[in-house]
Structure formats: C-alpha cells, structure tokens
Request: fold
Amino acid sequence: MSQPKKLVLLGATGSIGDSTLKVIRKHPDKIQLVGISAHQQAEKLLGIAEEFKVPHACLTSEKSPKPSFPGYTKLQTGENSLEELASLQDADIIVVAVVGAVGLMPTLAALKAGKDVVLANKESLVMGGEIVTKTAEKYGAKIIPADSEHNAVFQCIQGQPEKSVESIILTASGGPFRDLPLNQLDKVTIEQALRHPNWSMGKKITVDSATMANKGLELIEARWLFHVDPKQLEVVIHPTSIVHAIVRFIDGCCLAEMTPPSMTFAMQNAILFPERHEGVEPSLDFSQPLDLSFSQPSLERYPCLRLAQKSMETGNSAPLVFNAANEIAVDAFLRNRIGFLDIPRIIENTLNESEFISTESIEALLSSDAESRRIAATQIDLLA
Ligand code: NDP
Ligand code: MG
Reply:
C-alpha cells in the first residue's frame, strides 16, 4: 500500500476546511494532516490539532488569545507563518482555503517549493493569475482546482486533445435573490444575503454568490487555470447547482460534471487526484426527478458580474482592483455600513478611479491592491 499523502490545510477552520476534514476522516489511510491554519478561531484549531495529531499549526491573527496546544503541535503565529506552512518540507499537498487576498503569498510560496496546490482560494488567481501560473510552470508544481466549477472543468478536460475546447460554461445558482423583484434589492438584509438556497459556505463567498461577484471571480479564475480567451467563457443560471460546469468541444460535444451541491465531492477529487475512491456523501439519485434547467443571467440584476467581465476584458490589474474593491465592500456590507446595492457601486467607482498596471511584479500587485482598498474605503466613507 502506498504512503498517505501529507497535506497542509490553510484555512482549516472555515467551510472548505470542514469539507476537507470530512474527506480526511473518510480516507485516513490515504491522507495525513501535517499542518493547519486558522485566523482567530484558536479553540477550533486546537480541536483539529488534537483530533488529527497535527505537528504544525498556525494562528495568523496576533490578537487572538492562544490556548495551550499539545506538545506534539508546534504553534506559530502571525501572517508570515502561512508562507512557512505552505512550503513545509514534509508536505506533499497544500490546500489553500483561506479567504481573500491573503491567499496569494502562501499560494506562491507553495508553488515555489514545488508542492501541488489544491486551490480553493480564487482571489489569489484573480489578483495574480499571471504570476501564479508562471510560478507553477517554473517550479514544475501543479495547481489542482477545488472550486466546484473549476474542478468540474478539470475533470471534463482530462485526456482531451489540446486546443479542442471551444468554450467553458460555468453554472451559477443565482443566489437567494434570483427571483426577487428588482426594486426590492436595495432593501435586502445581511441575514437574507447569507441565506444561500443550495450551498453552505463562508460569509464572504455567500454574499459574493448573492451579487454574483463570485461567478465574476470564477470567470477570471477559469481564464488563468485553463488558458482560455475571455470570449470562450460563459455563465448560465442553473438553480439546482447539480451541473457545476460544461465544456463544449470544437466538434459540438459537451461534457458536464454533476454532483449534489456539497464541496466534499470537489475537495476529494482534487486531493486524491488522479485516484478515485468512495465519496463522503451519497451521489445523485436518478430515480428521483432532477431539475436541470438553464437560463441566462440578467446583468441588470447582477451588475457585479458585468463589472467582473469588463475588468477581465480590460486586463492588466483591473481584475485585482475589482477583487480588492469587492472585498472591502462586502466587509462593509457585513458590518451593516452600506446597503446591498452599494457593493457594485463601490466596485464601479473604484474601477473608475484606478489606473491599471501590468501584473508581472509581485511588489506592484501588492501596492496596487493596497491602493485599491484605500480608494474603496474612501468610497464607503462617502456613502456611509
Ligand atoms: P470561511 O470564511 O468559511 O473560512 C475562511 C478561512 O480562512 C478560515 O479558516 C479563517 O480562519 C481563515 N482566515 C480568515 N481571514 C484570514 C486572514 N486574514 N488570514 C489568514 N486566514 C484567514 O471561507 P470559505 O471556506 O467559505 O472559503 C475559503 C476560500 O475558498 C475562499 O476564497 C472562497 O472563495 C473559496 N471557495 C469556497 C467555497 C465554499 O463552498 N465555501 C467554494 C469554492 C471556493 P478563522 O476561522 O479563524 O477566522
Ligand atoms: Mg464555485
């Protein structure tokens, strides 16, 4: 029997962290957890360290009170420790499941150390797609997509001839406000935005799903992962979230990947790739009626999708500005400082006020990210 793969899980206390731990519990002979991180949920991190006897742990928030960890766990603190954990000599796979721009540097560190990266954190590719993909190439490291749509595409293109993809179609549930009259969108509450019809996820991505900024980020993510032109990418609304993506080939044939809406399927596929083993949860039941309907998203209802598409077409650092402004705006919405429809307003105003730079240097990326956040924060002060 082969040795278990040694896995580091950045963002172990989040929603993707939970799904990953379910996969590890199911396959303890195939995966060994050697590193975990959390930002502030120290007690939850401790529980994971104890359950899996994890040798390395990291708590990125310096402010969080630290419980005492068992002797076999070496605990580090501070944001830089994420990069150290991402390049841990002993690890084979790094799962990047932290939320937001903070995912970029550990993703790069893991790739530079030649590790396979299972990437859930889409923000890192949106910010630094060019650098991230070039770094993976240079160091011979693999990026295996964990986002359900991208994992679906990844599965559909295995073994297909190069240049045979005509287009990639990402599905979107449309979120909780898919059928809400447009004139009621400005009144929606945080609680309503967090009530996703199909998926259970972290707060930031749940709001991103309600605005469909998430699907915009995913278009940009797909562009880098699959080396396609923005014109080859489409989005369709598919309310039941059973089909995750469809790949249309040049001969007209379309392949789709389907599972119930739970991240354990994509996480297991990405972590155990290229092997397949019994899943954590039951598969689809085709003896019951399945709704497989598709429709076009309205850009009037989802202005964040329009802004993401525009920033992808503009290129250079425009997607980075989109991402930074979105992170700041979603955070302000979750703190009740701005309304739901202010999210696209802040993104649009920030894009209008920004200069787009080339994305080849990491220093330039980080400084443009900081500047975009500053502009977005000013926009919030004007509105709040
Ligand atoms: P959660 O908010 O549930 O979890 C985020 C994780 O990141 C937690 O472990 C959290 O620690 C940690 N974290 C938060 N802030 C920081 C920080 N500043 N520095 C370091 N670590 C931090 O998010 P999700 O699991 O939902 O999403 C994680 C990523 O995966 C996102 O990029 C998201 O877009 C992507 N994704 C998520 C999907 C899902 O189904 N949830 C599906 C596809 C992609 P703590 O708990 O201590 O705060
Ligand atoms: Mg997704």
